[in-house]
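Fig. S4 source data, part A: sequence.
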Amino acid sequence: MPGMMDKFYRFLMFLSCLSMLLAFASIMLGVAARELRWDIQGLDAYAGYAIAATLFLALPSTLKHGDHIRVTLVMQRLPAGAQNVLEYWCLLAASSLGVYLAWFACRLVWVSYTTHDVSPSADASPLWIPQLAMALGCIGFAIAFLHALVARMTGGPFFDAPIEGELAKTE
């Protein structure tokens, strides 16, 4: 199962990279259009949608790689038993919040779809379409936290360990 989850996280990161390229392309097209005095409606909105998709879709993979900010100042000063309890509490709280966020992100997509909610900008795009990326990223984030919690409970690794000597190679 961890192999399947890693593939899912990589797939979401791939979608995140595509979204970043789409954001770049829409921004560059907007710059070129302004210089040529063309009016392309909604480019700013599409760039915003793509940037939001980039951020949300990257959440699970960045958690897996340990790239989210962790405040270890308190953890380092606690005894080992208290560190263990705090780690479980943090993972359980984050998992709960992740599931809560995923539920409401999916609910937002559904409400936008059923009410035919559209963007207030000039493009008037159906909002449920860009919200899908947010919901998918939130689902992946919740799954990643649950995956980390299960890995902690079973004693298996969750975070990808940094490759030894990688930092030395880049300097």
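Fig. S4 source data, part B ends here. Residues 2-158 form one domain.
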